[in-house]
Amino acid sequence: MDVEVNSPSDAERASGGLGREPRPVTAVSPTVAIVAIVLVAIGLRPGIIAVGPILPSIIDEFRLSHAMASLLTSIPDILMGALALPSPWLARRFGRDPVILAALLLLAISIAGRAFATGVFPLLVATAGVGAGIAITGALIAGFIKARFATKAALLMGLYATALSLGSTVSAAVTGPIAIQTTGGWRLASGMWSVLALFGIAGWLAVVLNERRHRAVVPVSGQRVRLPLGNPTAWLVSLFFACVNFLFYAMVSWTSPMYREVGLSTTLAGLVLASFTAVFTVANPVFGWLSRSHDRRGWLAICAALSLAGLVPTALAPGLAPFIFIPISAIGLGGAFTLGMTLPLDNTNSVEEADMWNAFALTVGYLIAAGGPLVVGYLRDVTGDFRSGWWLLVAVSAVMLALTPFLHPSRSTHH
């Protein structure tokens, strides 16, 4: 059951601390909030996705191994997991809006700074800044959605996921051509995406200003919840989420380089990656709309099976119909991503509990997912091609399918 209550951080800020009576806290126009969520989400993924099409150029310039180069994707993944739990504490300590704005500013500066990196260490430091900005913003945006749109949280999470994928698609399609057609090369193609983070800052500033103009009394929830460490379903949900993101980040890192190695041009290889992110984007809301039942196991299984159906032919013959099989896997992963994000809602009875499940799933999921780009890159170094790495992705997809029968919603929730 979606319960319309405010988050603990809002409650504490409303009351000025625990044990006091609540004061009026800010509310926000739904239109302003939705536009801001979309603007922020569009700018959260290009800092990672844009690396894929230009990775061969970065490898050549800095003389990186494939395993080392994979850190440009794995570092953000690690931070997205590691910072999921402390992000709510930062919001309670300094306020949600200042923390989100600071994280978006860090993201913009880091994306731009990476384009000016003169060595491997500055390159990795800037990448860490990208990861931290994405991690903190993403964790707090999800909480904002659940707190302010509790009765429509699944719909808003679907919109959020679609906007994330839209940013991924545009950056995947545009980065490669800009890198090869401009004198700025990979540096311009990488650094220009900082502009989207600035749009996100503008959007969230609109939220702040709108909140100051419209005030409402929000009830304080005294509920205290803990991480679901002892709940088997929470671990299964987190593992499913980990599989989805393991596959997603491995594919956005290495799809374009793999197809360049089998003979496609930089532009065509980038378009294969763009076909993955575009179809992923379309699948996000479609499966969210199709999955009407509280028990989503059937649709989760279909998504996992589609992922497997696209990955097996690619592993068998990497050059075979990339614009068919890569999008097929994207359909499955796009649907699985959206439905996986709803699983914490399906198994919890309050915003606070859902927040803790979400933080737990993000932490476990992204820390495991960080191994996707790294392991595939390592296998490429060891074997000389990407085929063994793609068979690893097939195995992960099979695990994802095997998990789906066990992802039944908690009996204690009522929708």
Automatic annotation (TrEMBL):
- Record-linked Gene3D superfamilies: MFS general substrate transporter like domains (1.20.1250.20)
User: Keywords in UniProt for this one?
Assistant: Membrane, Transmembrane, Transmembrane helix
Concerning Pfam families, the annotation shows: MFS_1
Matching PROSITE patterns, A to Z?
MFS
**Which residue ranges traverse the bilayer?**
32-55, 67-86, 98-117, 123-145, 157-180, 192-209, 229-252, 264-287, 299-317, 323-345, 357-376, 388-407
| Residue ranges occupied by any Major facilitator superfamily (MFS) profile domain in the UniProt entry | 31-412
Q: Does the keyword Metal-binding apply?
A: no
Q: Which InterPro entries match?
A: MFS, MFS_Cyanate_Porter, MFS_dom, MFS_trans_sf
Which residues does the annotated region (Disordered) include? 1-23
The yes or no answer to whether the keyword Transmembrane helix is present is yes
PANTHER family documented for this protein: 2-NITROIMIDAZOLE TRANSPORTER, PTHR23523
Q: What is this protein called?
A: MFS transporter
Taxonomy of the source species? Bacteria, Pseudomonadati, Pseudomonadota, Alphaproteobacteria, Hyphomicrobiales
